[in-house]
Amino acid sequence: MASRVLIFFIRHASLVRPLSESGKLRMATDMADFELAVGQNLLPVEQLRAPYRALRYSLWLDSQGEDQIWKGIKATLDDYAAKVRVRGDKEFSPVYPLMV
C-alpha cells in the first residue's frame, strides 16, 4: 500500500505544470510532508526502493536547472538504447522515439 501511495502521488504531482517558484516550494513541502506521513503510518519510505527513489528523483528535478535536466534525460535515453542493443532486441519501446 505504501508503495502504491507514493507512486500515485508522484504520478499526480508530475501532471502539475508549469510551476511557479512558489509552486515548486509548495510541491517540495508537500512531498516532504507526504514522505513523513507514509513513513510514520505505513512503512519507512527507505524500504520502498523504486518508488522512494522516484520521489527523491522528482525532488532532484526541482533543484536543477533546465540544462542539467535535459542532460540527465539524454543520458538516461542513451543508457536505455545501449541496454536494448546489448540484449539484442530488434526494436525500442514505442515511447523511445517520442522521448528522443
Automatic annotation (TrEMBL):
GO terms for biological process: intra-Golgi vesicle-mediated transport. It comes from the Eukaryota. InterPro entries: Cog5. GO terms for cellular component: Golgi transport complex. This is Uncharacterized protein. It comes from Camellia sinensis (Tea plant).
